[in-house]
Structure formats: structure tokens, C-alpha cells
Amino acid sequence: MIMTHIPFIITILLYFVSSVWSIGSIIKPIFFTKKVAKWSMMMGFFIHSGFLVFLGLESGNIPITNVYESFVSLLWCVLFVYINLDYLYKLPSLDTFLMPLVTALSIWALTFDGGNLLITVSLQNFWLVAHIIPIFIGYAAFTISFSLSVMYLTQQRQLKHKLFGPLFSKLPSLEGIDKLMWKTISFGFPLLTLGLVFGTFWVRTQDILGEQWYLDYKVVLGLATWLIYAALLHMRLVASFHGTRIALLTIAGFCLVLFTFIGTFFMGSKHAFQRVSEQTHNEIVNIR
Questions:
Q1: Between vectors from CA 250 to CA 244 and to CA 253, what angle results, nearest 5°?
Q2: Among 288, 253, 286, 285, residue whose Cα is nearest residue 121
Q3: What range does the domain containing 164 cover?
Q4: Domain count of the chain?
């Protein structure tokens, strides 16, 4: 089994190199060049993409047949959204904050290898696919907004304590970071909303979680996540809140996103995943 996941292990190593070099480019730019950080990330993303294609071809479905694959797919979405946002908005030094997080989450994803929880619903269902794709991209946007929030608080601390060193000069202004936080949250929230609406159709039409589906931990925490980001947008649009409060609430929102995505399984929520045999799993996901 370990041989199957060598591409993802190589991906993690490349993301780790990117993390080290992106941090090093701020501390010791003479020894750590930004180009190495960027190319390591892009090479890792390329292998990551190929690995997802392999998983999809192996199962004949989108690569979410177990919790491990779902985690790997989510991390791919994070990099995909980041690369596109960086191309559009030129996000200076964001990789310094994002890549260590992606590396840590990738290592964590490996711990779910082994297929403990396998999907027990057909992946040919339209509502399931329509639920997953916007949710994953929305979560990816919130991961980036989390990194921007950490960047904001870091830059704020530099200003407060007058630490005008290499880190301060490499980070954008507080106003610039605040605008980027707003854009990523504004991008992710409609996708989260769409994913939850489609998820409701999926649960109701397929009777996945039973009559009391609304009491499932993942459903409850998904709604709580939606409320946090709805409150963030309300605070920004109506109350004109900026800065520290928005950054702290964004960090709290991301922690809830992560717990909703992974933590609920430790609480007993299966949410279409069960401990079943590989044969039963393959029979279910290939139903047409």
C-alpha cells in the first residue's frame, strides 16, 4: 500500500522544501531564493494533480472514496485556488504563511491512509458531486483567508512593536491584506452556501442520514460554519468592521472548517462513510 502513495509523499517533500525556502527568503534571502520556493510548490502541485488523476482512474470515480482521498482532494483545491488568486492579485509572501500549513495538513492526511472509513453511497449521484465540489473550493478559499489573517496579525504586531525588519518589508500593508481577506471570504461564502443547499437535496432525496439528518454532527457544524462566515460578511458590509476582529473571527471560522471536515469523524459522525469491506465499498460506489 505504501508504494501507491509514494507520489503524495514526494508531493509533501516538495511542499516542505517550498515552505522552508519561502520562510528562508525572508530571513536569509541570499541563501534562500524565492524561485526555489515557487518551483518546488509548482512541481509538488503537478505531482499532486497526477496523483489525484491516478486515484480517480483507480476507483473509476472522483477521488473521495475514503477520508484520506477526500483530504488529499481538499488540499489540491487549496493549492489550485491559491495559484489562481496569486496570478490575479499577486499575493506577496502569502506562500510563507500558506505552504507550512499545507505541508502540515498533508502530513496529517497521511495518517488517514488505510481506508478506515469508506464511502457507502453511490458516487454517480448528481447531488453528491454538486455538494462536494463547491464545498471543497469554498473550504480552500477559507484556508487562504486564514493564512491572510495570520499574516495580518503578524504585520500588525510588527507595527505595534516597531519591528521594522526583513519580515515587515516583505509583507503587504494592513489595508492590502484586509482587502484580500475580504475577497477570499466573499469568494468562498457563496460556494459554501451552494454546497450546503445541494447537500440538503442529496441527504433528503437519498435518505443518507435518516429522518433526523439535521442532528448529524457534520450537518450541525456545517451550519455553524456558514453562520460564522455570514456574520463576517455582515460585519464587513453593514457594521464596516475591519482589521483585528475580522482576522480573529476568520481564524475561528477556519478552525471550525477543519473540525467540520475531519473532527466530526472522531465524534461518531459517518456522513456517508462507514467501516465496510472493500468489496461492499466497491459495489456501492459503482452503482449506476
A1: 145
A2: 285
A3: 2-285
A4: 1
Print burial letters for 56-94: b (CB count within 10 Å at least 16), e (below 16): beebebbbbbbbbbbbbbbbbbbbbbbeebbeeeebebb
**pLDDT tens readout for residues 63-112:** 887 888 889 999 999 999 999 998 888 877 899 999 999 999 999 998 88
Helical ranges in 123-216 per DSSP H: 126-160, 166-170, 174-206
Q: Strands, E, within 49-141: which ranges?
A: 118-119
pTM confidence score: 0.88
H helices, E strands: number in the chain:
11, 2
Find all residues with CB under 8 Å of 28, minimum gap 6, and list them.
none
Cell 476582529, located at residue: 245
Reduced to 3 states (helix: H, G, I; strand: E, B; else coil), residue 178 is helix
Tell me if residue 123 falls in helix, strand or coil.
coil
